[in-house]
Amino acid sequence: MIRVLYRGSSSACFELESDRPYYAPEAYTVSLNGAEVLRGEANVFSLFGLEPGREYTVAVKSASGREERTRFCTEGERCCVSVRDFGAVGDGVHEDTGAIQAAINFLPEGGRLFFPPGDYLTLPLSLKSRITLELPAGARLVGSTDRERYPIVKGVSLDPVTGAELPQAGFEGIEMDCYQSLLHGSYAEDVTVVGPGVIDGNGQNGDWWGDFDSFPAARPRVVFLNRCRHITLHGVTVANGPAWHIHPFFCEDVSLYDCAVTALKDSPNTDAIDPESCDGVNIIGCRFSVGDDCIAIKSGKIDMGRKYKKPADHHVIRNCLMQFGHGAVTLGSELAAGIQNLSVSQCCFEATDRGLRIKSRRGRGRDSFITDVVFDNIRMDRVLTPIVINLWYNCCDPDRYSEYVWSRDKLPVDDRTPRMGVFTFKNMECTGAEAAACYIDGLTESPIDQVTLENIRVSFAPDAKPSVPAMQNFAEKRCKLGLYLDNVRRIRVRDVRLSGVEGRGLIADHYEDIETTGFEVD
Asked: In the 3-class helix/strand/coil scheme, how is 94-160 assigned residue by residue?
């Protein structure tokens, strides 16, 4: 079956029904109205350059000869205009900020702004509601390296009449002043950015990756969305962010379909996408290779969590490929308002430090309740530690090395104490692991409620090297460690097989109930 994920006025995205992570069972060809248009191997594919308001027939024919068909109709649109008509040059030398912003300002609701192939050098741009930006193949938005000309957006502005707060920007779980991002949307609705062109933050050519702690404001993201609704990115590549690449902040209904995010492996804090305190995020058919976490789901540090009590809710991650990065799918560590109803399925992770990574610590607060998290049908290769839940995370806070963070004593449960609920990891195949198969370390005074490990296979690389499975104070390097679980109330291990473990296959401590069925160690 062919599922239509997205259809706009000039592009559409499709998902093949398959039980395979990311890759389709067979290579295939795609025909549009009888003419072959592409060859693919992934479960998700896209078509671009379509005509508005037109009906199409899509046929997918596999290498073995099986064929599936579906019909769809593109959306209508009010108009399409070229950015060149507003004076944009697109030669990568002349700055096109004024021309592009003028075109965005002019565009009526329901309009599409088209960027002909070229390199459009620009300072930050402000989005507005009910428009589409289209970057076809060969078109690039390129961020200027002139940091002094980037506007600084206040974290919170005050209404001069009423004194009411107007939240505008934030970074790493705190409302703070930030340089305006390359594409910046605030309180916008129904905005679409379609590809397959590139939005390039150009971070490697400026000073963004240098002494950024001395900057007067937090670094910009490539795409920052503050309290926006109904946002879609389809088919675009986002690259070389000054910091995080895509940062939806208190948004609703945000979807990424068949997008790519890339940055150098050693680039600092270049997470691919960090949805923070958002409701309804879909990340489907995407590819990530960055210098930090690929996907990091957040809900703020304790002050912001207490203030807004806005958890991350109803997120779906499916059919994605993640290569390199510190973690493939990460929760936290800024999760003070909680995370719930998360589904991660049919994904492939390659050469990330950690696969499924949950990180928190004392000080995230009582509203930091993480539960109803399911990871299903995942394939990992050369991931150092496939599964990590770490309640002793020691980064990104002034008190990171304090006794409060690292003490293993049973401290009083108070309004600073986070909670962890129910986590399910199932149908996973992991090859080439090195540090540990699973490293789960709950808080002494607030144990994780339940962890289920079901139908999982983990094999270690023969030449595995010791490394730290979780970022903690006084952390020990590990090598070929099996299942390690501490401070988990209920442990369920069902049909789990480990190959190449050194020492005991299962190390569990400080639990109330444990079930092991079909657990094998080769």
From this structure: EECHHHHHHHHHHCCCCEEEECCCEEEEECCEECCCCEEEECCCCEEEEECCCHHHCCEECCEEECC
CB of 171 closer than 8 Å to CB of 178: yes
Closest CA to 77 of 116, 124, 109, 120: 109
Residue type, 304: M
Amino acid at 13: C
C-alpha–C-alpha distance, residues 339 and 314, integer Å = 9
Distance, in Å, from the CA atom of 374 to the CA atom of 351, rounded to the nearest integer, reads 22
Helix (H, G, I), strand (E, B) or coil at 302: helix
Cis peptide upstream of residue 333 (ω within 30 degrees of 0): yes
User: How far apart are alpha carbons 80 and 77 in whole angstroms?
Assistant: 8
326 is catalytic: yes
- Look at residue 159 in the predicted model and tell me its pLDDT: 93
CATH of the domain at 47: 2.60.40.10
Q: How many domains does the chain have?
A: 1
* Nearest to 246, CA basis, from 340, 7, 255: 255
Residue 281 resides in a domain: no
Q: How far is the C-alpha of 18 from the C-alpha of 305, rounded, in Å?
A: 38
Name the active-site residue from 292, 293, 353, 376: 292
What value does the mean pLDDT take over residues 307-313? 98
* Catalytically annotated residue among 326, 372, 381, 495: 326
Q: Determine whether 245 is an active site residue.
A: no
DSSP reduced 3-state for 306: helix
What are the Cα distances from residue 158, in Å, to 7, 168, 180, 445?
40, 10, 18, 40
Say which residues have a Cβ less than 8 Å from residue 161's Cβ, sequence separation at least 6.
none
Rounded to an integer, the average pLDDT of 410-435 is: 98
Q: Does residue 364 contact residue 392 with C-beta atoms inside 8 Å?
A: no
Average pLDDT, the chain: 97
**What is the 3 state secondary structure string of 369-430?**
EEEEEEEEEEEEECCCEEEEEECCECCCCCCCCCHHHHCCCCCCCCCCCCEECEEEEEEEEE
Number of C-alpha atoms within 13 angstroms, CB side, residue 134? 20
- Measured at the alpha carbon of residue 369, what is the angle toward residues 418 and 329, in degrees to the nearest 5? 100
pLDDT digits (tens, 9 = 90+) for 479-514: 999 999 999 999 999 999 999 999 999 999 999 999
Domain that holds residue 27: 2-73
Mean pLDDT along residues 160-171? 96
Q: Which residues pair with 88 in a beta bridge?
A: none
Asked, for residue 12, whether it belongs to a domain, the answer is yes
Identify whether 37 is part of a domain. Answer: yes
Predicted confidence band at 396 (pLDDT cuts at 50, 70, 90)? confident
In a domain? residue 7 = yes
